[in-house]
Amino acid sequence: MSLYQKFVANQQLRRLVVLLTLIGVIYVSRSMMNIILLTFIFTFLVTQLVRKVQQYTRIPPAAVVVPLYVLVIFLVYLAVTIYVPQIAKQSIKLVESVYNFYQSPSFDANQFMRTIGDYMKQFNLTDQLKHGVSTIVNYITGIGTMGVTIVLSFVLSFFYTIELDRLPRFGKLFLKSTYGWFFQDIMYFAKKFVNTFGVVIEAQIFIAIVNTVLTTVTLTVMKMPNIPSLAIMIFLLSMIPVAGVIISCIPLCIIAFSVGGIQYVVYILIMILVIHALEAYVLNPRFMSSKTQLPIFFTFVVLFVAERFLGTWGLIVGLPIFTFFLDVLGVKTIHRADKNKTS
Fold this sequence. Notes:
The chain has one domain (14-328). Helices cover 85% and strands 0% of the residues. The chain has 14 helices and no strands. The chain is elongated and about 95 Å long.
Protein backbone atom coordinates (compact mmCIF):
# COMPACT_ATOMS: atom_id res chain seq x y z
CA MET A 1 0.00 0.00 0.00
CA SER A 2 1.43 3.37 -1.07
CA LEU A 3 1.86 6.34 1.28
CA TYR A 4 -1.06 8.12 -0.42
CA GLN A 5 -3.34 5.11 0.03
CA LYS A 6 -2.35 4.86 3.69
CA PHE A 7 -3.17 8.55 4.12
CA VAL A 8 -6.61 8.15 2.52
CA ALA A 9 -7.32 5.09 4.64
CA ASN A 10 -6.42 6.97 7.84
CA GLN A 11 -9.72 8.85 8.28
CA GLN A 12 -8.72 10.73 11.42
CA LEU A 13 -5.50 12.14 9.93
CA ARG A 14 -7.22 12.81 6.60
CA ARG A 15 -10.00 14.84 8.18
CA LEU A 16 -7.49 16.82 10.21
CA VAL A 17 -5.66 17.78 7.01
CA VAL A 18 -8.94 18.71 5.31
CA LEU A 19 -9.99 20.82 8.29
CA LEU A 20 -6.67 22.68 8.33
CA THR A 21 -7.01 23.20 4.58
CA LEU A 22 -10.47 24.71 5.02
CA ILE A 23 -9.19 27.00 7.78
CA GLY A 24 -6.39 28.13 5.46
CA VAL A 25 -8.80 28.83 2.62
CA ILE A 26 -11.07 30.83 4.92
CA TYR A 27 -8.09 32.83 6.19
CA VAL A 28 -6.93 33.64 2.66
CA SER A 29 -10.45 34.72 1.66
CA ARG A 30 -11.08 36.69 4.87
CA SER A 31 -11.58 39.89 2.84
CA MET A 32 -14.74 38.27 1.43
CA MET A 33 -15.96 37.10 4.82
CA ASN A 34 -18.91 39.51 4.90
CA ILE A 35 -20.41 38.24 1.65
CA ILE A 36 -19.65 34.60 2.54
CA LEU A 37 -21.34 34.77 5.94
CA LEU A 38 -24.32 36.82 4.73
CA THR A 39 -24.89 34.45 1.81
CA PHE A 40 -24.71 31.51 4.20
CA ILE A 41 -27.17 33.10 6.65
CA PHE A 42 -29.69 34.08 3.96
CA THR A 43 -29.44 30.67 2.33
CA PHE A 44 -29.77 28.82 5.63
CA LEU A 45 -32.89 30.72 6.72
CA VAL A 46 -34.65 30.37 3.36
CA THR A 47 -33.71 26.70 3.13
CA GLN A 48 -35.16 26.07 6.57
CA LEU A 49 -38.41 27.74 5.52
CA VAL A 50 -38.61 25.70 2.31
CA ARG A 51 -38.05 22.44 4.20
CA LYS A 52 -40.74 23.38 6.72
CA VAL A 53 -43.24 24.04 3.93
CA GLN A 54 -42.30 20.82 2.14
CA GLN A 55 -43.20 18.87 5.28
CA TYR A 56 -46.85 19.63 4.59
CA THR A 57 -46.96 19.87 0.81
CA ARG A 58 -44.65 18.59 -1.89
CA ILE A 59 -44.10 21.74 -3.90
CA PRO A 60 -40.92 22.74 -5.73
CA PRO A 61 -38.58 25.14 -3.88
CA ALA A 62 -39.13 27.84 -6.51
CA ALA A 63 -42.82 28.05 -5.51
CA VAL A 64 -41.72 29.15 -2.03
CA VAL A 65 -38.51 31.01 -2.83
CA VAL A 66 -39.78 33.33 -5.57
CA PRO A 67 -42.79 34.74 -3.60
CA LEU A 68 -40.61 35.06 -0.50
CA TYR A 69 -37.90 37.08 -2.25
CA VAL A 70 -40.51 39.22 -4.01
CA LEU A 71 -42.06 39.95 -0.60
CA VAL A 72 -38.68 40.87 0.89
CA ILE A 73 -37.92 43.21 -2.01
CA PHE A 74 -41.35 44.82 -1.61
CA LEU A 75 -40.79 45.34 2.13
CA VAL A 76 -37.37 46.86 1.47
CA TYR A 77 -38.94 49.16 -1.10
CA LEU A 78 -41.54 50.28 1.45
CA ALA A 79 -38.82 50.87 4.04
CA VAL A 80 -36.72 52.95 1.65
CA THR A 81 -39.62 55.00 0.30
CA ILE A 82 -41.51 55.52 3.58
CA TYR A 83 -39.28 55.04 6.60
CA VAL A 84 -36.04 56.60 5.31
CA PRO A 85 -37.73 59.88 4.28
CA GLN A 86 -39.27 60.08 7.75
CA ILE A 87 -35.83 59.73 9.32
CA ALA A 88 -34.48 62.40 6.95
CA LYS A 89 -37.27 64.79 7.95
CA GLN A 90 -36.62 64.15 11.62
CA SER A 91 -32.90 64.80 11.06
CA ILE A 92 -33.63 68.12 9.36
CA LYS A 93 -35.92 69.13 12.21
CA LEU A 94 -33.21 68.20 14.69
CA VAL A 95 -30.58 70.34 12.94
CA GLU A 96 -32.99 73.26 12.60
CA SER A 97 -34.00 73.09 16.26
CA VAL A 98 -30.38 73.05 17.44
CA TYR A 99 -29.47 75.94 15.12
CA ASN A 100 -32.49 78.01 16.19
CA PHE A 101 -31.68 77.32 19.83
CA TYR A 102 -28.15 78.69 19.51
CA GLN A 103 -29.41 81.70 17.54
CA SER A 104 -32.24 82.52 19.94
CA PRO A 105 -32.01 85.48 22.37
CA SER A 106 -32.74 83.14 25.27
CA PHE A 107 -29.42 81.41 24.67
CA ASP A 108 -27.44 84.67 25.00
CA ALA A 109 -29.49 85.71 28.04
CA ASN A 110 -28.87 82.42 29.84
CA GLN A 111 -25.77 82.79 32.04
CA PHE A 112 -25.27 79.02 32.28
CA MET A 113 -25.38 78.56 28.52
CA ARG A 114 -23.07 81.55 28.00
CA THR A 115 -20.57 80.07 30.42
CA ILE A 116 -20.64 76.74 28.56
CA GLY A 117 -20.19 78.59 25.24
CA ASP A 118 -17.15 80.48 26.55
CA TYR A 119 -15.68 77.25 27.87
CA MET A 120 -16.18 75.46 24.54
CA LYS A 121 -14.33 78.26 22.71
CA GLN A 122 -11.15 77.06 24.42
CA PHE A 123 -11.22 74.03 22.13
CA ASN A 124 -10.39 74.07 18.44
CA LEU A 125 -13.89 73.15 17.33
CA THR A 126 -13.17 73.82 13.65
CA ASP A 127 -10.65 71.00 13.42
CA GLN A 128 -12.91 68.79 15.51
CA LEU A 129 -15.80 69.51 13.15
CA LYS A 130 -13.68 68.68 10.09
CA HIS A 131 -12.62 65.43 11.71
CA GLY A 132 -16.24 64.64 12.55
CA VAL A 133 -17.38 65.30 8.99
CA SER A 134 -14.58 63.08 7.68
CA THR A 135 -15.65 60.32 10.05
CA ILE A 136 -19.27 60.61 8.92
CA VAL A 137 -18.24 60.44 5.25
CA ASN A 138 -16.19 57.31 5.90
CA TYR A 139 -19.11 55.81 7.81
CA ILE A 140 -21.55 56.53 4.98
CA THR A 141 -19.08 55.02 2.49
CA GLY A 142 -18.90 51.91 4.67
CA ILE A 143 -22.69 51.68 4.71
CA GLY A 144 -22.73 51.87 0.91
CA THR A 145 -20.16 49.09 0.65
CA MET A 146 -22.11 46.95 3.10
CA GLY A 147 -25.27 47.61 1.08
CA VAL A 148 -23.62 46.21 -2.05
CA THR A 149 -22.46 43.19 -0.05
CA ILE A 150 -25.98 42.56 1.23
CA VAL A 151 -27.44 42.81 -2.29
CA LEU A 152 -24.85 40.39 -3.71
CA SER A 153 -25.44 37.94 -0.86
CA PHE A 154 -29.19 38.25 -1.38
CA VAL A 155 -28.84 37.45 -5.10
CA LEU A 156 -26.48 34.53 -4.49
CA SER A 157 -28.78 33.02 -1.89
CA PHE A 158 -31.70 33.38 -4.30
CA PHE A 159 -29.98 31.44 -7.05
CA TYR A 160 -28.91 28.74 -4.59
CA THR A 161 -32.32 28.24 -2.97
CA ILE A 162 -34.28 28.37 -6.22
CA GLU A 163 -32.31 25.27 -7.32
CA LEU A 164 -32.39 23.65 -3.91
CA ASP A 165 -33.12 20.17 -5.28
CA ARG A 166 -30.77 20.37 -8.25
CA LEU A 167 -27.60 21.65 -6.55
CA PRO A 168 -27.28 18.74 -4.07
CA ARG A 169 -27.52 16.29 -6.96
CA PHE A 170 -24.77 18.19 -8.73
CA GLY A 171 -22.68 18.25 -5.55
CA LYS A 172 -22.89 14.46 -5.23
CA LEU A 173 -20.91 14.17 -8.45
CA PHE A 174 -17.87 15.47 -6.54
CA LEU A 175 -18.25 12.68 -3.99
CA LYS A 176 -17.75 10.11 -6.75
CA SER A 177 -14.79 11.88 -8.36
CA THR A 178 -11.13 10.84 -8.20
CA TYR A 179 -10.63 12.80 -4.99
CA GLY A 180 -14.06 12.03 -3.61
CA TRP A 181 -12.64 11.44 -0.13
CA PHE A 182 -11.70 15.13 0.05
CA PHE A 183 -15.23 16.32 -0.76
CA GLN A 184 -16.74 13.70 1.55
CA ASP A 185 -14.77 15.17 4.43
CA ILE A 186 -15.82 18.69 3.43
CA MET A 187 -19.45 17.55 3.49
CA TYR A 188 -18.87 15.97 6.91
CA PHE A 189 -17.63 19.28 8.37
CA ALA A 190 -20.29 21.30 6.52
CA LYS A 191 -23.13 19.24 8.01
CA LYS A 192 -21.74 19.67 11.51
CA PHE A 193 -21.35 23.43 11.11
CA VAL A 194 -24.85 23.86 9.66
CA ASN A 195 -26.24 21.89 12.61
CA THR A 196 -24.48 24.05 15.24
CA PHE A 197 -25.28 27.25 13.37
CA GLY A 198 -28.95 26.32 13.25
CA VAL A 199 -29.02 25.93 17.04
CA VAL A 200 -27.45 29.34 17.62
CA ILE A 201 -29.49 31.26 15.03
CA GLU A 202 -32.69 29.97 16.61
CA ALA A 203 -31.53 31.36 19.96
CA GLN A 204 -30.61 34.69 18.35
CA ILE A 205 -34.06 35.01 16.77
CA PHE A 206 -35.62 34.46 20.19
CA ILE A 207 -33.35 37.13 21.69
CA ALA A 208 -34.32 39.53 18.89
CA ILE A 209 -38.00 38.95 19.66
CA VAL A 210 -37.46 39.67 23.37
CA ASN A 211 -35.51 42.86 22.57
CA THR A 212 -38.19 44.01 20.14
CA VAL A 213 -41.03 43.42 22.60
CA LEU A 214 -39.26 45.27 25.44
CA THR A 215 -38.29 48.21 23.22
CA THR A 216 -41.72 48.45 21.59
CA VAL A 217 -43.48 48.49 24.96
CA THR A 218 -41.17 51.29 26.15
CA LEU A 219 -41.72 53.33 22.96
CA THR A 220 -45.48 52.87 23.27
CA VAL A 221 -45.43 54.19 26.85
CA MET A 222 -43.43 57.19 25.59
CA LYS A 223 -46.09 57.71 22.88
CA MET A 224 -43.53 57.63 20.07
CA PRO A 225 -44.88 57.82 16.49
CA ASN A 226 -44.76 55.04 13.85
CA ILE A 227 -44.48 52.19 16.37
CA PRO A 228 -44.97 49.37 13.77
CA SER A 229 -42.16 50.59 11.51
CA LEU A 230 -39.90 51.18 14.51
CA ALA A 231 -40.63 47.66 15.78
CA ILE A 232 -39.62 46.16 12.41
CA MET A 233 -36.39 48.17 12.38
CA ILE A 234 -35.56 47.12 15.95
CA PHE A 235 -36.18 43.44 15.22
CA LEU A 236 -33.91 43.48 12.16
CA LEU A 237 -31.14 45.28 14.03
CA SER A 238 -31.54 42.96 17.03
CA MET A 239 -30.41 40.11 14.80
CA ILE A 240 -26.99 41.74 15.13
CA PRO A 241 -25.98 40.81 18.69
CA VAL A 242 -25.07 43.74 20.95
CA ALA A 243 -24.19 46.13 18.08
CA GLY A 244 -27.74 46.13 16.69
CA VAL A 245 -29.14 47.64 19.87
CA ILE A 246 -26.59 50.48 19.69
CA ILE A 247 -27.18 51.14 15.98
CA SER A 248 -30.92 51.47 16.57
CA CYS A 249 -30.15 54.24 19.07
CA ILE A 250 -29.43 56.79 16.30
CA PRO A 251 -32.84 56.95 14.56
CA LEU A 252 -34.65 56.47 17.87
CA CYS A 253 -32.87 59.46 19.41
CA ILE A 254 -33.62 61.61 16.37
CA ILE A 255 -37.33 60.83 16.53
CA ALA A 256 -37.41 61.10 20.34
CA PHE A 257 -35.92 64.59 20.24
CA SER A 258 -38.65 65.78 17.89
CA VAL A 259 -41.35 64.28 20.14
CA GLY A 260 -40.22 65.18 23.65
CA GLY A 261 -36.95 67.07 23.40
CA ILE A 262 -33.76 66.23 25.22
CA GLN A 263 -35.70 64.55 28.03
CA TYR A 264 -36.95 61.86 25.65
CA VAL A 265 -33.45 61.42 24.23
CA VAL A 266 -32.23 60.69 27.76
CA TYR A 267 -35.04 58.17 28.19
CA ILE A 268 -34.04 56.45 24.92
CA LEU A 269 -30.38 56.31 25.96
CA ILE A 270 -31.30 54.80 29.33
CA MET A 271 -33.54 52.25 27.58
CA ILE A 272 -30.74 51.34 25.14
CA LEU A 273 -28.24 50.90 28.00
CA VAL A 274 -30.64 48.67 29.93
CA ILE A 275 -31.51 46.50 26.90
CA HIS A 276 -27.84 46.36 25.86
CA ALA A 277 -26.89 45.13 29.34
CA LEU A 278 -29.80 42.68 29.34
CA GLU A 279 -28.76 41.22 26.00
CA ALA A 280 -25.03 41.10 26.73
CA TYR A 281 -25.19 39.74 30.28
CA VAL A 282 -28.48 37.84 30.51
CA LEU A 283 -30.09 36.88 27.19
CA ASN A 284 -26.98 35.94 25.20
CA PRO A 285 -25.39 33.77 27.91
CA ARG A 286 -28.63 32.23 29.17
CA PHE A 287 -30.45 31.36 25.93
CA MET A 288 -27.33 30.61 23.93
CA SER A 289 -26.11 28.27 26.63
CA SER A 290 -29.49 26.53 26.90
CA LYS A 291 -29.59 25.94 23.16
CA THR A 292 -25.97 24.84 22.86
CA GLN A 293 -25.99 23.00 26.21
CA LEU A 294 -22.87 24.91 27.28
CA PRO A 295 -22.17 26.33 30.76
CA ILE A 296 -22.93 30.04 30.98
CA PHE A 297 -19.29 30.72 31.92
CA PHE A 298 -18.00 29.17 28.69
CA THR A 299 -20.62 31.08 26.71
CA PHE A 300 -19.39 34.36 28.23
CA VAL A 301 -15.77 33.51 27.45
CA VAL A 302 -16.51 32.45 23.86
CA LEU A 303 -18.51 35.62 23.14
CA PHE A 304 -15.77 37.79 24.62
CA VAL A 305 -12.89 36.10 22.77
CA ALA A 306 -14.79 35.86 19.46
CA GLU A 307 -15.67 39.56 19.60
CA ARG A 308 -12.03 40.43 20.19
CA PHE A 309 -10.78 38.41 17.22
CA LEU A 310 -13.68 38.67 14.75
CA GLY A 311 -15.48 41.86 15.77
CA THR A 312 -19.26 41.93 15.41
CA TRP A 313 -19.23 38.78 13.28
CA GLY A 314 -17.58 37.01 16.19
CA LEU A 315 -20.71 37.59 18.29
CA ILE A 316 -22.75 35.90 15.55
CA VAL A 317 -20.52 32.99 14.54
CA GLY A 318 -18.36 32.63 17.66
CA LEU A 319 -20.61 30.10 19.39
CA PRO A 320 -21.31 28.08 16.21
CA ILE A 321 -17.57 27.84 15.60
CA PHE A 322 -16.88 26.82 19.21
CA THR A 323 -19.64 24.20 19.30
CA PHE A 324 -18.49 23.01 15.88
CA PHE A 325 -15.00 22.30 17.21
CA LEU A 326 -16.47 20.61 20.30
CA ASP A 327 -18.40 18.31 17.97
CA VAL A 328 -15.42 17.65 15.69
CA LEU A 329 -13.14 16.90 18.64
CA GLY A 330 -15.73 14.51 20.07
CA VAL A 331 -16.11 16.56 23.26
CA LYS A 332 -19.83 17.28 22.93
CA THR A 333 -22.29 16.75 20.09
CA ILE A 334 -24.99 19.39 19.69
CA HIS A 335 -28.33 17.98 18.57
CA ARG A 336 -31.14 20.00 17.08
CA ALA A 337 -34.73 19.33 17.89
CA ASP A 338 -35.48 19.71 14.20
CA LYS A 339 -34.01 16.81 12.32
CA ASN A 340 -34.95 18.08 8.88
CA LYS A 341 -32.36 18.47 6.27
CA THR A 342 -31.02 21.94 5.65
CA SER A 343 -29.65 21.47 2.21
